[in-house]
Amino acid sequence: MKNMKMKEKIQGTCVDLNHQGMGVVKVDGFPIFVDDMLIGEVAEIKIEKVGKSYAQGTVLKHLNYSTWRVRPICPVYEECGGCNLMHLKYEKQLEFKKKMAMETLKRIGHLENIPIREIIGMEEPYYYRNKVQIPFSMDTNQTICGFYKKKSHQIIRLEKCFIQSRLATEIAKYICQLANELIIPGYNEKDGRGILRHVLIRNNVNYQYMVVLVTREKNFAGKRELVDKLVAKFPAIKSVIQNINKESTNVILGKKSLVLNGIDQLTDTLCETKFQFSYNSFFQTNHLQTEKLYNRVLEYAALSGTEVVIDAYCGVGTIGILLAKKAKKVYGIEIVAEAVTKAIDNAKLNKMNNIEFICGKAEIEIEKFTNTAIDVIVLDPPRKGCETSLIEVIKAKKIRRVVYVSCNVATLARDLEIFSCDYLVREVTLIDMFPHTSEVECVCKLTNRAGN
Ligand SMILES: C[S@@+](CC[C@H](N)C(=O)[O-])C[C@H]1O[C@@H](n2cnc3c(N)ncnc32)[C@H](O)[C@@H]1O
What we know:
Elements: E1 9-17, E2 23-27, E3 30-34, E4 42-50, E5 55-62, H1 90-109, E6 116-120, E7 131-139, E8 142-148, E9 155-157, H2 166-181, E10 196-203, E11 209-215, H3 223-233, E12 237-244, E13 256-262, E14 265-270, E15 273-278, H4 287-301, E16 308-312, H5 318-324, E17 329-334, H6 337-349, E18 355-359, H7 362-365, E19 376-379, H8 388-397, E20 401-406, H9 409-419, E21 423-431, E22 441-448
Parallel strand pairs: 3-5, 6-21, 11-12, 16-17, 16-19, 17-18, 19-20
Antiparallel strand pairs: 1-2, 1-4, 2-3, 4-5, 7-8, 7-10, 8-9, 10-11, 12-13, 14-15, 20-22, 21-22
Helix pairs in contact: 1-9
The chain binds S-adenosylmethionine (SAM).
Residues 282-284, 313-315, 318-319, 333-336, 339, 361-363, 380-382 line the site of S-adenosylmethionine.
């Protein structure tokens, strides 16, 4: 390693991008991660941090620009921590994600020649998010709202956002304006004072909105007026919920909530099927891409109508209910009791009676299927991936097909390696659920090597 020092200035060429989309510059083989550098670009760089295996730097001056660089349409892109690839042409973002996924599957999962079929991008990669969480705070005597600056809790005021729905931005700005008019203070993380902590805004495909006001206290002056004015201005708001969070923590939602106006849930339509979700339910945040994801799950499950299927990690039952239309019987397993209640309601809403939901941990509940042969299992775990014990049970039961949906390629790679002695990775599809960020969703089809 070169004896690199903090504040040292160097000139370097970007040779790669790391998994967060930062440029990689090498000095005597030692990597320096630099924001805002693309492959082939040369820049003067200031070293900001030196660690054992890598350093971090910032660009002082670009000496050339990549032909793949574009001017980000967002005026606060460089400061905001929301997006990190907006300076790269969209088609190159997709290439980058595919390359990253392949490298990660190889490096962590030791999987060679991964059959990645394609990466499915968006035609219009803007205004796609149907869920946003906007922090509120105080700046001197004013209530403000916006997004956190990169690696900090300092708020950049919300003016525009090109990835969330336009109306969500308008709603948040109006709540901020009303908070100032009605003297409702934003929450101060440092001293725990103030009222309004976050505003969550969710919408469905028909642009009906749910607004959640996360507050430190249940009662505060101006609450009723705020809600009345809000729903009067935006008829698209069908639900206003108050969530109370008294804790001094980074966790956004508290345990208690109440409906302040309208209904307590929204109904969305995905793949011609209706799903209800409440303010705290897991529900995919990019509607168009979710349909593409779910259609690929159905294709990989390859159901003929005779199969018994498990939808592990089923959330409010979305994938399971779609599978049930093509299977003999589906069992959904989900750890969150409220999500299971919603999943049962969703099955009723769609008149599906060949699906059952079980509340519990997938890795425990699957062991109880001693007298039922399972043909196909769909796994859609949170970022941390599956428990090894769940994979071992799947292997022991010799389930014929596994469809693994993942929002974290690193844990997917780890888990696929555990599967690999008994299962063959037949195909992988990548779905760009979060354009302009370095995140990517994967769906994989695995078949049992024994073929039974
Ligand atoms: C990525 S979400 C997938 C939800 C659903 N498949 C969908 O597409 O909307 C993961 C879900 O797994 C649930 N979960 C987390 N750990 C679990 C476990 N050990 N067993 C069962 N469910 C779990 C979470 O509550 C969450 O609903």
